[in-house]
Amino acid sequence: MQLQPARRKPYDEINITPMLDLAYVLLIIFIIMTTASVQGIKVDLPKASSATQLDSQTKAITVSNDGQVYYEAVPVSMAELEQRLRSQAALTPDFPLVVKGDGQVQYAKIVGVLDLLRQLNLTKVGLVTGKQPRAR
Question: Would you place residue 134 in the very low, low, confident or very high pLDDT band (cuts 50, 70, 90)?
């Protein structure tokens, strides 16, 4: 008895697994790039010699050159800022905050924001600065 060679069957199906893997990788890259590019209001930050990366849960308060206060890139008054911070503190009691102030903004405006944060007992607060250019 002789064994017959196996006949090759034509492909009935297309394997789409590699194509789906590629689509998922591209989706992940797209999500990472879009969330990384959202940084809020553009301000001219003062320079510092050291800088650290921000956590993804960090909320940002920005004070622009004209003194306008923004919470997460939305313009707010000081009363609205207090209300939003209180509601965020009710959801997440110890959430991190950063204060970004334009280099030309009045110091009193930044102090007002920091005083509000102290009154609300928010202690995880950082000040954002730009990177200092390296001397060559």
Answer: low
